[in-house]
Inverse folding.
């Protein structure tokens, strides 16, 4: 079984830096980052492999298209897979040139290179794009009998009408913050606001129970 993951920095594993690797060695740190983010930890607990397709700063609009790219160009129909999606904050948007560009990760002088992008990022209905992305991914998975595990990583999402939603109405960020506030012995975040290794493990334990009961 393979877990195929989509999301933003909370799924990519931002700030999961090995102390044994130079902080500038991004690619050398990749195995450490991917094995300690929630997707890698969940795969380990389930005895599965994983494919992490998340990007820092990703929008839900981009997640929809990245899922479609995987489904159309990389999916092996004979392989047992579970699609795992950590939906991100609603105000984010992305556009595709040669690669994906996300409005939360570009510099101010790069943000509006063309008037069309200026209009899109200023006027897009973010709730609409998120609802459409969720509907698309869930519909495709249902049509092709692909199990899907999903939750909100960041943002204020309205309740979703899907049975495979983990802690519907809450987010990974809020769950970890509430846990840390209720127990001052817990340290679940890195300095930049992303979950640290302990934060990903804390969340994965709870996600694993849900996945075993409802998805796997």
């Amino acid at each position: 079984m393979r877990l195929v993951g989509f999301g933003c920095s909370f799924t990519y594993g931002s700030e999961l830096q090995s102390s044994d690797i130079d902080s500038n060695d991004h690619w050398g740190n990749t195995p450490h980052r991917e094995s300690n983010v929630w997707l890698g930890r969940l795969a380990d607990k389930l005895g599965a492999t994983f494919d992490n397709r998340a990007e820092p700063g990703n929008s839900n609009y981009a997640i929809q298209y990245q899922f479609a790219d995987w489904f159309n160009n990389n999916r092996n129909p004979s392989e047992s897979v579970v699609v795992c999606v950590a939906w991100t904050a609603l105000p984010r948007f992305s556009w595709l040139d040669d690669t994906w560009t996300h409005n939360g990760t570009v510099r101010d002088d790069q943000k509006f290179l063309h008037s069309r992008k200026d209009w899109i990022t200023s006027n897009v209905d973010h709730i609409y794009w998120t609802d459409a992305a969720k509907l698309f991914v869930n519909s495709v998975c249902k049509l092709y009998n692909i199990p899907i595990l999903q939750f909100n990583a960041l943002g204020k999402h309205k309740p979703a009408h899907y049975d495979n939603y983990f802690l519907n109405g809450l987010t990974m960020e809020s769950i970890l913050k509430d846990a840390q506030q209720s127990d001052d012995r817990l340290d679940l975040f890195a300095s930049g606001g992303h979950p640290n290794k302990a934060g990903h493990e804390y969340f994965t334990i709870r996600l694993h129970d849900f996945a075993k009961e409802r998805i796997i």
